[in-house]
Amino acid sequence: MRKNKNNKKEKKHSNYRTIDIIKTNKKDEKKTDITQPRVIGIIKTEDKETNNFKENSDNQNSSKEKYLDDEIRIDEGETIQDTLNGERNYFNSKHNQKDNKKSLFLIKSKGRKRIAIQEYIEYILKHEVIISLNEELYKDDSDRGFYKKLNQHDFGVMLYQYIEEEHKRLIVDYDIGAMYRIMKIQPKIQVSLDKLDSNNMLINCENCLVDLERNEIHKHSFNAFRFNCINAKFIKELTKEEFKSSCFNKFLNSITNKDKELKKLIQEIFGYSISSINKAKKFFIFYGVPNSGKSTILDILNYIVGEENCSHIQLQKLVDDKYCAELFGKLLNTYNELPDEGLSDLGQIKALVSENDKVTARRLYNAPFSFKNKSTLIFATNNLPEIKMNLCKDNSALFKRLIIVPFLNSIPENEQDKQLFEKLTEEKNLIFRWSLEGINRLLNNDFIFSDCKISSQYLKEYITEEDLIGSFINENMRYKENGYTFWDEIKVKFKLYAKANEKSLVSAKEEKFLKKSIENNFGIKVRKLHRGNYNKLGFDNIKFI
Known about the structure:
The protein is of the alpha/beta class. Among the domains are: 1-80, no CATH class; 242-452, Rossmann fold, CATH 3.40.50.300; 467-544, Arc Repressor Mutant, subunit A (Orthogonal Bundle), CATH 1.10.10. The chain has a 5-stranded mixed β-sheet with strand order 4-5-16-15-14, with no helix packed on it. A 5-stranded parallel β-sheet has the order 18-19-22-17-23. α2 (117-125) crosses α5 (173-184) and α15 (453-466) packs across α16. It is elongated and about 105 Å long. This is SF3 helicase domain-containing protein. Residues 261-420 form the SF3 helicase domain.
């Protein structure tokens, strides 16, 4: 790193692109906008073609930026950390020139020396890129190109690196908590919720940024606010032979019984889960027999997405705002082994899988906030949850948002590989590359998941079981030319059907919904029928089986 006190223009560099680092000038801190990073460095990039992705290079002029009354730029071969270390040394040298008899970082309180909290906060912010979003702190991870959540423990570890040795014996636990809380409310580091991964066509992984829209890969940068990083590296090529011989492919064949449609569907679900896209308006239930691989495939998906990017709230708890808050900023929510408890409120679930609907959540002891959910919802169960709703409620909107993934092949214990998960984690880069093919296919198909006959079959059976009125009509009534059925007869038979399905009473409102459902199903309106000695309400051209 070098310093240049002159304001002379730098020569232009070809085949270079700018990188962004946030630096603040104490004199101008009121003007500082954390959402507009200042360009102070340049790094070299190269153009490369890879499979369906190509590496992106921007030809830009080098930029200069003044801060701390000096001009800084990153020289060729120098890293961001080198620059920050150099600035830290520069700041320390200036600080050491001050009167050592009276430290800037100490105050006297109630007869004892204590560290000066605000002074240390300002000192840290000169050396670390930290932002505050939704009452939480995030620190830049320059190696992986995203802002990582900074909890109080990690904040304390970072703080200790900056506290002078002679001050460490003065610090108490309260000081760390106080600095953490006060750091959250620093005006110049506040970021609004609409900055949360605004470009959902970018997937950040360990070694690059994958652009789904342009089929390109980019080097990590902080030109946008990203808060997630996939726990895998992008590999440029994945041949059919490599994938066919992988442990993951053998596992897929085992859990799907080599059903190609089912494997295709699972691939698209993996791709959907590694992105922050929520346009498909779907959630997923992995349903089937015990020891069929449901838990293992969710475990490996959690591992690829990254545990810090996952939450684990059961389907029935998502109606509670304090549990719903756990989904904020996550890419994936999974839950193994759903309880037998039924579903009573479906409105929240429909909002969570919508691209535009906001949900209201509240962390414990905090104020409520609203956000658009971007996490994919996947649940595993041996028994599909019962829907506890009135018969007159239309559940079709929920069923349109649900995809059931059947797991029907139970693996005997003596055939189970106890080291399977460890073997699959070793293939995380291969699985990530395979998942990208799934999200690309989903994008090309306008966010419609590929047809899967066995999945559709199980969803149809589930709808029949949970939709009492719909199943009554489908099982008992048919269109028949010149046939007829009186409304009184339909009501009597439906009450017997409901009682056989553990519903003892049918309300007038539910009877009205039954009538409307028959009209919609057959396209025939109820009317007065004159048949024999009777003149009463009924349906033409409909007969009981």
